TrEMBL record:
This is DUF5641 domain-containing protein. It comes from Trichonephila clavipes (Golden silk orbweaver). Residues 7-200 form the Mutator-like transposase domain. InterPro entries: DUF5641 (IPR040676), Mutator_transp_dom (IPR049012). Pfam families: DUF5641, Mutator. The lineage of its organism: Eukaryota, Metazoa, Ecdysozoa, Arthropoda, Chelicerata. The gene is AVEN_118079_1. Residues 311-374 form the DUF5641 domain.
């Protein structure tokens, strides 16, 4: 949900899948008492928070956000900007969360609506072709793919430039259509804007009191036959009902940009657990609202993720020492193939800080930056398992028995 200064103010993550539940159902059989006992313990950390269908996800999330807005912030959302389908909007209307007198406005993303014009025109081409009429040939004035793209852009611009007035929007949309079908014999520029700065060359010439150029200079042309065929598409998409939803001229570009930040943190192609998604959404929202630099600083100062604390502390607490065995980082190789080396000397700079070290490898000596030398976790205190624990039966979290391998000895 985005507010005017383009800030993310709330979000909700819904998941239909839980890795542990799936494994438990497989191993313990879903309806067995064993599963019921296991589930009792698991319930608090289960990742499933949506049981309906995937298509209901957006509706459920919107309902949660709407309910929360009153309860937690005492604020109301006044409008919803979405793509064409209005399921979510209708769901919110039926729930009537804010009560009477506080209606929600539905707005449509102008990118989506102009895409619908493109789709409409393309299906018209197909429809005509099935009837044996070709309107997309190579002839001048036919409805080629490039023409469709141009008309779509004209339509979008007409909405964007006149977004506070439905009637103006409508006449600007028809102006683009009629302008394109004008010829020297039949100029149709009555709806085109007047003035010296008009986009229409015909009206511009009239304003400058010159005689207009020939219509052959026009780049986008449509024959009368094509206009007659596509007029119904325009009539449908320039109706008051549709245009009244575009009056703010907003697009979902900000949403899309947030999404791309989220999915750059966790690739969409592979399955992501809810926890990972949560981390990436939180980081993305922070980057979106405050910028990446702030986020990075903030994360390192106030990190609450245990794994981050460990790696951060680990690096700080263990400076390298001379004589230590290290792994030499090599970006060309997999981490497991990095070569081992022994630190033989630290080289300090003019300011006294050590940034590079001389190391001895199998084949010779190297000078490498200190941050490229990874100490092996050999000096960590080893954990002694109590004897009796190792002897008794060990079970995994999913209650599988762990059988230690039998050693083959001579005895
Ligand atoms: Zn679960
Ligand atoms: Zn014109």
């Amino acid at each position: 949900m985005l507010a005017p200064p383009r800030l993310v103010i709330d979000y909700e993550i819904l998941s239909k899948y839980c890795t542990e539940c799936t494994a438990a159902v497989r191993d313990l059989l879903g309806d067995s008492p064993d599963f019921a006992i296991w589930y009792e313990g698991h319930k608090s950390e289960c990742q499933i928070n949506l049981t309906g269908s995937s298509s209901s996800m957006e509706m459920e999330a919107a309902a949660i956000l709407w309910q929360r807005s009153i309860k937690e912030c005492n604020m109301c959302y006044t409008c919803i900007l979405s793509d064409g389908d209005s399921k979510t909007f209708q769901h919110l209307m039926s729930l009537n969360i804010y009560g009477k007198g506080k209606p929600i406005k539905k707005e449509v993303c102008i990118n989506h609506i102009s895409k619908r014009l493109g789709t409409g025109l393309r299906s018209k081409v197909k429809e005509c072709r099935s009837k044996g009429v070709c309107i997309d040939g190579k002839k001048v004035g036919s409805l080629k793919e490039t023409t469709i793209v141009k008309l779509t852009n004209f339509y979008r611009k007409a909405i964007k430039d006149n977004c506070n007035d439905v009637e103006k929007m409508k006449s600007a949309i028809y102006a683009t259509l009629y302008h394109c079908s004008s010829t020297d014999a039949k100029p149709k520029h009555s709806k085109c804007p007047n003035g010296k700065f008009s986009w229409c060359f015909f009206k511009r010439a009239l304003a400058n009191e010159e005689s207009p150029e020939s219509h052959s200079v026009m780049k986008t042309k449509l024959t009368e036959e094509v206009v007659a065929k596509i007029l119904p598409v325009y009539q449908r998409l320039a109706s008051n009902e549709i245009l009244s939803r575009c009056t703010s001229g907003k697009s979902q570009n900000a949403n899309e940009s947030l999404h791309s930040v989220i999915w750059s943190h966790c690739p969409k192609e592979s399955f992501q657990s809810k926890k990972r998604l949560e981390i990436s959404v939180v980081t993305a929202v922070s980057e979106f609202n405050f910028g990446s630099l702030f986020t990075l600083k903030h994360v390192h100062q106030n990190t609450s993720l245990p794994s981050m604390q460990i790696s951060w502390n680990h690096q700080k607490s263990r400076p390298l020492t001379v004589g230590e065995v290290v792994k030499v980082e090599n970006s060309l190789k997999n981490r497991t193939l990095w070569s081992l080396a022994r630190v033989i000397q630290f080289i300090s700079g003019k300011d006294g800080h050590v940034r590079v070290a001389r190391v001895k490898t199998e084949t010779g000596e190297l000078v490498r930056p200190v941050q490229g030398l990874n100490n092996l976790e050999l000096q960590e205190p080893e954990i002694d398992l109590p004897k009796d624990l190792t002897d008794s039966v060990i079970r995994t979290r999913r209650r599988r028995k762990v059988i230690s391998p039998k050693r083959l000895t001579n005895a």
